[in-house]
Design brief:
This is DUF4174 domain-containing protein. With 164 residues, the protein is α/β, with parallel strands linked by helices. It is built from eight helices and six strands; from the N terminus they run αβααββααβαββαα. A hairpin with a 5-residue loop joins β5 (119-123) and β6 (129-133).
Length: 164
């Protein structure tokens, strides 16, 4: 509960007025365990790493995982703000945003990707690591990296709808 409160507070201060980004809580996950269905219903939301199974998103979405050792890490706050300011660019590219700012939670994502402090990690629809940055990165650059991926090239060529 304390972790969620600090996350909510840090995001509330970083969020621009009128932003329509949803931050889901662990209690939401307990009520509706299907994160994929929630993401499909509202793709402009940020999930906590403890409430998602990345395998659920295989071949449907590109997970963008933002790690930090605390939700008040300046790099973490900056990255979340950059994401919130341009969420539409990520939605168009089938990106699901996942945050993990509590090393003590020892989430599966943290165990698998092993970040050291702040890290931005983009996974492909195949689940493989496509990008890893130790500093905040602008959504425009994230989008350019995604657009160079073979799967994304095929999506753009074929005109596939978001979400697979």
């Amino acid at each position: 509960m304390r972790k969620m409160l600090s996350l909510t507070l840090s995001l509330a201060f970083a969020m621009p007025l009128g932003a329509e980004v949803l931050v889901t809580s662990s209690s939401d996950a307990a009520a509706d365990p299907d994160a994929m269905a929630r993401w499909q219903a509202e793709p402009a939301q940020i999930f906590d790493a403890g409430e998602v199974e990345i395998e659920d998103f295989l071949w449907r979405a590109r997970p963008l995982v933002v790690f930090a050792d605390t939700p008040v890490d300046p790099a973490f706050e900056e990255q979340v703000s950059l994401i919130e300011d341009a969420f539409g660019e990520l939605v168009r590219r089938d990106v699901v945003v996942v945050i993990d700012s509590d090393p003590d939670a020892r989430t599966d994502l943290r165990q698998d990707l092993r970040p050291r402090g702040f890290a931005l990690v983009l996974l492909g629809k195949d689940g493989g690591v496509k990008l890893r940055k130790p500093f905040p990165w602008h959504v425009r650059e994230i989008g350019r990296s995604i657009d160079k991926m073979p799967e994304r090239q095929r999506e753009m060529r074929d005109g596939n709808r978001p979400g697979g």
